[in-house]
Amino acid sequence: MIRILVLTTFCSLTFAGAYAQWQGKFEQLGQTLPTPNEYRTGSGSPGPEYWQQQADYIINAELNDDTQSITGSETVTYHNNSPEVLTYLWLQLDQNLFDSDSNTGKTRTTSIQDSITTKEIAGNLDLYDFDGGYKIKSVTDASGNGLNHFINATMMRIDLPKQMNPGDNFTFKIDWAFNINDRMSEGGRSGYEYFPEDKNYLYTVAQWFPRMCVYDDIEGWQNKQFLGRSEFATVFGNYKVKITVPADHIMAATGVLQNAKAVLTPDQFSRYEKAKTSFDAPVIIATQQEAVQREKSKSKEKKTWEFHAENVRDFAFATSRKFIWDAQAVKIGNNTPLAMSFYPKEGNPLWEKESTKAVKNTITTYSKYTIDYPYPVAISVHTASIGMEYPMICFNFGRPNKDGTFSDNTKWGMIGVIVHEVGHNFFPMIINNDERESTWMDEGINSFVQYLTQVENYPDMPKRRGHAEGIVPYMKGDKTTMRPLMTGGEQVVQIGNEQYGKAATALNILRETVMGPELFDKAFKEYAQRWAFKHPKPSDFFRTLEDASAVDLDWYWRGWFYTTDHVDLSVDKVRWFKMREENANLENKNKNVKSGAITAGSNANGNSSNFDNGPEPFSVIPTDSRLYGEFLSRIDDKAVADRMKGKNFYEVTLSNRGGLVMPVIIEWTYKDGSKEIERLPAEIWRTNEQVISKVFVKDKEVSNIVVDPMKETADTDTGNNAFPKVDQPSKFDKFRNK
Q1: Confidence band (pLDDT; 50, 70, 90) for 603?
Q2: What is the pTM (predicted TM-score) of this model?
Q3: Over the chain, what is the mean pLDDT?
Q4: What is the number of domains present in the chain?
């Protein structure tokens, strides 16, 4: 209270007229977010009438290893849990991305360079002779009657023979086929890799059957066309899948293998059963020696693998005669999932050493921050130059040299991609956001928890995304290529820097600097628990974190997610004051004097670049009785003055040059060599978003100050963070890197 009565008046006189144009950075998001209702509440939780659709699949398919093609038949039962009447259904036909008439190629911008590789120009100009896309053979109801349907690029609409009322189910069947793309030439999120040395194929197959689009309370049908970048919105359901492949193949897939005895050798089956109770180390189920023999056999016989999966939003598989397979049981709460890896010999020794360990570390650490991993398996599959995720299974790069040696970059890159892709089991495979509309909700949130996982399990691993300092080069870059995080993925130019890196960093700064780990972790876990196996939107995330923490974060969401502003706080001026000694004998008299009078010394303009000129003196005078209003009691003027005697007053002026308001973190270094960290909430900017000043009272004399000393806020210019100014900002790195 003493500081308010004396120093507030002091500051207001010193900085009168410093206000700039108001930009509303602390205004509530209000109507920017969807209006809460009975489906999604203002607290960010699912409402009492929340609903979501369900789609159950029975799929029978065969992969032809001679023609690299798949033929399949699926029976879909669609459950209308919405309160609305439906007259048609929409399905995704992702394989049509590879159709010769695909909009992906038509909308790709290209140019000719002075020199360009054959691979680049063939890919950019679609010069490969590949017959891609679905061949839809039939679409019928459960009785075999044809259904009216039409295909629009990567979407197919099925007209219902009669309307689906709320609570109705409808079963239909689709027969289809497609040629599998070579990822080396055509690219893609799935496909095959060819090994010319032994003339074998490794298939990682996803987006391989017509899948139901999401129908929800916000978008209706999410039938935005697939152009290749923005990923998927898919529906939870149950799967029963049978896939026929050459008899010497080993297969990994979403779900639980139902006929292990029929497709594995007795030795492999015994090892498979042993792995279910091996918690200390992986068990190799299909060995490298067995894989090498299978590479040579190229069996023409067939086997059918059967998998069942419950409450998943998609299904993918990988198959090859080249696969080595290992597995380890993991204890997570009441669950004991199997962490598994499938890899060709070209992945060893690195994959045998690190992959399953990384799977285990990932599902264990993610479970701590979200929910206990609920699925029975978590699988990492190795193939070249990819990182892609599906429920319970992901496809990952990281290949040693031919002689088995590998660099640290290869090892850390492989571990990093495994952690990231296995982590996607949580975001978005369980906490199931719409990837096509809100890419940051899976890529960014997942990259953030990936960062936490790597910090906890791999302390020596270089950190790529998540730490504040790492995003600085992007944040200080060209604004013309930047987009706010709330931009749809197809419109983003720098998708890795933004939807992955910036989002992950925003959440890490929110955790470490704005909210604190304990409070953030409680709120983040609340979000995960509320929206597990549901379809959250950005507003649900924003509202839940505020609801569960009692922290108003609208300013943070507005700045980090809705703008391309960056952080650049500047220490513009520091003035050092001391009270005149004669004021120490101030008597407690109610003199009729002008309130708040200040007497400054020779350096009153505050232009000094250091503290060499010493403190500026100021006078404190008794409070005018008129300022007490109706109060009859009075302040003890002498007691106030006595408390100020010998104190050092530092008036610090900061400007916000980057536009992004953030907490102010000041490191004070005193003349005796001691240090102190002082933290001010971001709300200090709430009445002036461009320039603020604040007076600090210190017992000891200050030699210098540094703003953001540990580089916590992604400040893009640390050269203006210190006082006194220095020619080489790196002089203060020893303070920032503590």
Answers
A1: very low
A2: 0.93
A3: 92
A4: 4
